[in-house]
Fold each of these.
Amino acid sequence: MTRALIALATLLATASTAAAQARTDFSGNWSAGTGNFEELPLRGDPGVEAGEYVGIPLNEAARQHADAWQPGMHSLLEWQARPHPVTYSMRAPAPNFRMAPIINPDTQAIIGYTIENLFGRADRVIWLDGRAHPSKYAEHLWQGFSTGEYQPDGSLRVTTTHIKYSFVHRNGIPLSPYAQMTEIYKRHGDLLLIAIVVDDPIYLTEPLVRTSTFRLNPAQQVQVALPFEVFDEIPALDRGKVPANPLGFVDTRYAEINKLPLEAARGGAHTMYPEYAKRLTELMQQRPSPTLSSER
Amino acid sequence: MRRSGIVLLLLGVLGGAPAAQQDRLSTQPGLPSQPDSARPQGIPTKPAARPAIPVYEDGTIEALHVAGNVYLVAGGGANVVVQDGRTGLLVVNTGPAATGTAVLGGIQQVAKKPIRLILSTSADEELTGANDLVSNAGANVNAGIGGAGGREPARLQGAPIIATEAVLHRMSGLKNEPAREPFGTWPHLSFYGPLSSRTFNDEVVEMRHVPAAHTDGDMFVWFRTSDVIAAGNLYSTITYPVIDVNKGGTVQGYLNALNDILDIAVPKFNNQGGTLVVPAHGRISNESDVAEYRDMFTIIRDRVQAMVDKGMTLAQVRAARPTLDYDGIYANPKGTWTGEKFLEAVYTDLTRNRKK
């Protein structure tokens, strides 16, 4: 009987240890300066160019939305101090962030992580205590609302909802408030891989998948929170005016400058996959650069 | 590894791609098939569902704290805003008659106190239908004055209802439409200027009349200390602006109302928090949400105006799909105010302006 109890206790202890080992500690200062430039234009400023939709699984509605976008929109008073949505701020521009555990003082268990120093200080909390996501009537935030679960291999799977109506890219490709983001945090020693899957039932035909790598950097200092300042940037912008391109406008400069067929620049799910290279080759062989018959 | 292989691997780790996408991926030429036996342990094989678009006003009543002393009772036919304080409860809009009892239960979830005042932001049945019920469930703080042979007449026993004078005129049948039944849904007090303010529950409550917006009698309510705006039908997160052109609503008036709200709203930090705005339909919002809505409406107005200036017909405007980029969020095809009705209202208003 005693042997059986010892065996059971050993088994439980082993299982407990295994479970504990599966909970990787993600605490630390993580730097985007890894030398891995998965999305080089995004690591810097200002990001992708106007009219650059290649590799994005956007639908026709999103394309029309992006075509209307003008940089002048960001001079609107209500736009000047906007942080990036969480779907973007974890990728760009070059986020150097601190990930700190939230400890339950009674149990000393990690019940969440904070992620601080994202662009515009739209700092995040990832709750690990099993709490529910807020009501559908609750306010949406730039950082959304995130909950996480450890996976059997020690990685962390994070689900984020309640993201603001914002953008996929800073060139007008929209992200609806019904979008969700799923992330996998996987630590390899001093390197942190974050796989980000953004799905949006309104504007994307398929999930958008990206990965980013970060390096542990104990010397990194998180900056003091500074609110953005709002000024009258365009004096001629009267109250109620919203800068936008007219319906049917297509910005072809990205395609022209990069000598790409306009069809590729217009994006869509098919432009995400390597099989599109064949189509791209065919288009590149045609001169002059073709235009879309569907363009208004 | 090929990029598509990486995509497949990640989707596998994350629970898989949507079914349609998996079908698509599985037919990609050159991609190696991956039997389930090859999957690492613990990786789910079911495809992940795409995010669901929430259904609002599904009959499940929820009471949420908004900010300060202000709460939202949601889930009935329209959002009901409640201010809680030592004097009792102030209620902005009561929802349709059909959900009145359920909404009363939601109000009682906020606090079991007497309902003292009701503010109606417009004459819509969906916002005033339960006025009678909620008023009778409340208690007028001045109910004890007058009556019983005294110098003054007897006062209303239930909670008084306040609205703009145009709302009273509309509900009482003075605007070429039948008087609203029952009589108890009508406002007891009304104002006709641009602003009516009072202190209630130690908080200044501003009622700002916005002429010719959704209708001719709309107002929004600003709780100054709690910093919450109850916008009524002057803002929505789930429908296009409701422009009732037959009841005095206009495109420019509605845009003016949105810009008025934006003039008041101040975010707490970097365009979120701070002033919160509660629409009659949809979710709690802040300044940047209202700005998105204003931008959307302005852009669509400008598009339709350009087509009207060219002399295009409504059918031609529809064919040009000037609302395509926003329809997924606001068209509300199963609701009473669809994208088609919205576009027709905008066209009607802009063309009648042109004729003037």
Note: Chain B touches chain A through 71 residues (CB under 8 Å).
Amino acid sequence: MSSSPLLHAIPRNALLWLLIAQALVIAPHLFHIPPWIAGLWLFCALWRVQVYRSRWSLPRAIVKLAMMVSAAFAVYVSRGSLVGLDAGVALLITAFTLKLVELRSRRDALVLVFLGFFAVVTGYLYDDSLLAALYSLLPVAALLTAWAGLQQAAGSRQSPRISLGLSLRLLGQAIPLALLLFVFFPRLEPLWSLPQPAEKGRTGLSGQMSPGDIAELSQSTELAFRATFDGEIPAKNQLYWRALTLPLFDGRSWRMASFGTDLLPGQWRKQGASQAYSVIMQPSRQPWLFSLDISESTQADVRMLGDFRLQRNRPVARTYLYQAEAWPQAVAEPLLSAAGRRHNLQLPRPGNPRTREWARQLREQYADDRQLVAAMLAHFNQQPYHYTLKPPLLGENSIDEFMFDTRRGFCEHYSSAMTFALRVAGIPARVVTGYQGGEINTAGNYVQVRQMDAHAWVEYWLPGSGWQRADPTFQVAPERIELGLQDALGDEVAALDNSLFSPVRYRHVAWLNKLRMGWENLNHGWQSKVLGYQRERQHAWLRQLFGEVNWQRIGIGMVAAMALLLGLLALFIIRPWQQRPAPAQRLLQDYDRLMRRRRLARSPQEGMQSHAQRIASQLDALQLQALEDFVTVYQQLQYSGDGNLQQARYALRQLWRSMSPRYLRKR
Amino acid sequence: MALQQLEKALAAVNQVVLGKETAVRMALACLLARGHLLLEDLPGMGKTTLSHALARVLGLQYQRIQFTSDLLPGDILGTTVFERDSSSFVFHPGPVFTELLLADEINRATPKSQSALLEAMEERQVTIEGTSHRLPEPFFVIATQNPVSQGGTFSLPESQLDRFLMRLSLGYPDSRAEHALLGGSGGRNQAISPEALLDKQQLLAAQQQVATVRASDALIAYVLRLAEASRNHPQLGYGLSPRGSLALLAAARAWAFLAGRDYVIPEDIQALAPAVISHRLGHAQGASHGRSADAIVHDLLDTVPAL
């Protein structure tokens, strides 16, 4: 069987765990690596097992080279590149897989284990949710087990469970250390930036809005952000989460302004009560944040722009937590600059003549701006407009067609039409996009906003009073604002969102809903407490603990705490106050266990020999022989000082075997 | 070699003392461990027979002293007598100068005479008028005594009981042995018949071998556990002294040697503990004497983990 002794350098136990670990490591990556890698892994695993069974041999150098090159080429074909995160991870997993048929020695297997740990870490770049983190414990445990298995003698046939127990113990012992490092380890700015995984079809607000954009967004139940309020959660119809203002209109789409003035904070005056809140934002790959009107944030990397939105100095690439304070009654930009006025009255020259005519008529009718706005809103309220996710397609003069022909639309239609009309009437106005409302999680008392809560509304400017919010959608479908999209559209949403596991689908099943809320609350905690524990939070917390914070202090504190922890751990493991049971003691314990199971228990005050004599009558010749053999070796070991532990273990194993239920049955 | 001889010797003694194999073996073990033996029993149970038989088969030169209440120390140890021929005092050794001394009914003598013997037992030498005289090697004492309750006895104090390695009682023979006895076999009449099966050299060699029997750490731990338990036993006023532990270990070595082993196992300790330690334990003040020390020793053996 041992045609090449090197093959057996990796114990069976370790190989088994290596294969399990690989499967566990690769599984979550299957969401973003080319699927053929799974096939490749199965093939390599089979090869490896056959090699272990000495059926096949390891590939020769030329074959290995060919496999490597073709795998790299396949990655290139699948991903269009060999650089970048996606291709990099695919390459990593491929290498991780191919290494399997290249294992010769323990050293190779160790490399494989370390590669596995690295692959687990790369998984966090794609998914750092609670579930993913919990899952990653499985591959880590399996890798540790394989590692432990590698320490056995080659050819050892020890049960894989023993290695597993060892690795689980190690993991358990690592927990306090991990917690310590989590709390104290400095959060460094990234040394290099990694290109983020390209996520095609990732939903979220974009910098422009055309008819149908937000309706499309509304079909996604994906989480956008969660907001926790210091005080009570405001009424749902006050939860207008501003993301962007879109002042530029080209006749079809609204776009962001890119003017210099917008980059300066807007002029505003605090007024009334304020409300503090914090938001945990899901990655959006965009720099803009979501805020209630009008918010300021003390966060260093966040600032307010000219249209009162909050913007971070770099895109939100991973879950991001920020704190802000909103002044709902603040006066925003009481004085509008000439340039600002020009932007917000800008209209494309031709097009939509009927709407222009209508707006002009209204202007003639109402000299007062407020009355004009009220009349417009009343128009939407009284005319037979219909709120729907599936509006008919619109042609050249989209606003005209919507206003007077189809009259069916989603929030972007209403806000776009109203802004257009306001501008015609000479009132500076713009479209605001963001989210509206959200689901109040009763388990955790926070608001949870999904992509389907995306919304667009109107902002118009009055001299002296500044920007005012108007929401024509509210006039058409007040339940959208009061309750939420599902209640406004009911079946339409259900029909659109027909995924079996969609959380929305089961929202009327009370206990399921409760369960979902609880789970989401847990996720919220994970994101705010664990992922959100970044530099600033760490500083704040450490300041609370130690007063002034500087890295020397934290370093010293960390080292001291680690020394203490490791010391305690070592004490716990070594237990110097406790005498280690001698090997002979262990033998005795095993012997006693066997005898208890066979109902021949030795009483503690009984010596081995007296016990053997006592139970002799209940044993057959074979068992008696085994028993006598064991007693003799045991006594030699324990009392004559020239015993052999191996021999005693062997004798005990023989005794177990002779008294095994299988043998007893046969008898 | 020596072991075979010893087994033969045991068989020979058992021909005389019927049905007392264990007690005979213990008595032999006691001698092999260089200990003195105290036989305690009612008159007529075979104490003297046993001592005689042992002395004979072991090929030892032996003396017998019958202890009485008017026995004086000089009667045991010997006296210095003025000899006219050499015009000097000459020491006339007493019966104690022998290899095996049978001290019959030791508790009938006065404490003064008792302690004269007991000193000799411990020191293995006799000091008379400033001159030390070594006792021969080997030197054994097999003392017999009647139970304390019997009339005309001076019970041995604890400190002196301690000098005996073992205290054995023979007890009534079982009916089969007694039947054989009455049928004419065994008994004192035959005590003459056993021949010496060992010589002095063999006995000394055996004693040396016994001393090298191994008592491992694990076994010593057991002895310590027993001693500890005896010291904490509620019915005991005082527990086993270190000398007692040593004695137990020494006796167990001899017992293991007789079993053909060169190491002691807990069973050896258990077999000998009643004989070795029961006379070294003291009842607690005020505790009822209802339970014999023997029962308490069994108590200890039943509660202390052996391994």
Note: The longest strand of chain B covers residues 78-83.
